[in-house]
Amino acid sequence: MKTNYGDNVKKTHKKNSIIFILFFSFIILAYLALYYVYINYIASNNDSQYEATKTKTTDDSDSVQNEISNSISISDMIESVSKSVVGISKFQSKNNSIFSNDYSSEIGSGTGMIVSDNGYILSNSHVTGEKYSSCYVTLENGNSYEAKVVWSDTDLDLSICKINAYGLNPVTLGDSDSIKSGNSVYAIGNPIGFEFRRTVTSGIVSATNRTIKLEEDNNASYMTDLIQTDATINPGNSGGPLLLPSGEIIGINTVKITSAEGIGFAVPINVVKPVIESFKNVGSFEEAFIGISAYDSNVIPYLSSSSNNFTSGIYIVQITSASPAASSNLQEGDIINSIDGISLSTMNDLKEYIYTKKPNDTVVLNVSHGKISKEISIVLGKK
Q1: Domains contained in the chain, number
Q2: Is residue 58 part of a domain?
Q3: CA-based angle 149:349:133, to the nearest 5?
Q4: Which runs of consecutive H residues, i.e. helices, occur in 119-167?
Q5: Active-site residue 13, yes or no?
Q6: Which of 238, 278, 328, 338 is catalytic?
Q7: Of 78, 98, 170, 368, which sits with the fewest C-beta atoms within 10 Å of its C-beta?
Q8: Same domain, 107 and 148
């Protein structure tokens, strides 16, 4: 059969048209597929960026929330500790509370803190008076009691008095040896009587192991191993707590430098812990003693009569007559390096250790005098 040329041309044209359409469709589909992939890639990137931004926003919110929570925690802590802070006066007001508008109640007023649930109060000896004297204590709830001073150390300016009360909320004692310059601290006290009772001030630990010279009635004395703080301490704050944000007490506020702002001092709590524990556990404290007056290397520069240079240990400046030290081979000018193998850096180190001992206990001192070193055993006496 003879093929028509025109029909062949038509068939070829039709075939080419179909191939062109298929190719063109393939190109469009490929383009659409690439476009789809591209759109999803951009969307995915945008979602990631949004999520990152969202996470950052959440972090900021959490940070603000943490600051608010910390602020609330500090406020709750201060409120809790304040309930254990008491007012102390040597005078009893007409309405039986030192927190009154009676002016006489503000004379000689100070601060203290509850250290046991059965009525032992820690303060300064210049606030409560010395051992066997009386003072008046007013609790946070307004109840007032006559207190008896059961222990006092004028060198440390610390005392413990006892009131006839039970079920009290004692403070929590911290570790004053662990604090460092820059630690945040708070002071609570009664700066000037009724109107400003339980005033709270804040600051930092400015320095540790400070030594200050006190002069009264032409007599000089030294307080050593003190915590220096810029938290405002006024005269009525004496005997009040210096505490960490955790609520732990690390010092007892005692004195400020009146010729400068932001320089106050507190006695480290560790030195008196053994005394507090003894009263809490057995209701008494038998104080052992060696019978020496000694200073650390921070005090020696104040003593023009001494040319000693030493960096550790404590320097004996006086031996009490009729004391265990007087009956031993100790002599003035000796440097006590350690007691029972425990190194000494300050007089407070020695006191803290002796407070853990009882009268008639024996201790061994490592002593040096010039280039000569020796060990001396001493039987402690009763103070």
Answers
A1: 3
A2: no
A3: 10
A4: 125-128
A5: no
A6: 238
A7: 368
A8: yes
- Contact at 8 Å (CB) between 315 and 287? no
CB 87 within 8 A of CB 98: yes
Structure tokens at 52: 């990152």
> Out of 153, 157, 225, 296, which one is annotated catalytic?
157
Active-site residue identified among 100, 109, 123, 126: 126
CATH of the domain at 222: 2.40.10.10
**What range does the domain containing 351 cover?**
286-382
Residue 264 in domain: yes
Per-residue pLDDT tens listing for the chain (383 residues): 444 555 554 555 555 666 666 666 667 776 666 666 555 554 445 444 434 333 333 445 454 444 444 555 888 999 999 999 999 988 765 544 444 444 334 444 799 999 999 999 999 999 999 999 999 999 988 899 999 999 999 989 999 999 999 999 999 999 999 999 999 999 998 876 556 678 899 999 999 988 887 776 667 677 889 999 999 887 788 899 999 999 999 999 987 666 667 788 999 999 999 999 999 999 999 999 999 988 887 777 776 555 566 778 999 989 999 999 999 999 998 999 999 999 998 889 999 999 999 999 999 999 998 888 999 999 999 98
Active site residue 238: yes
Please give the structure tokens belonging to residue 107. 């004379």
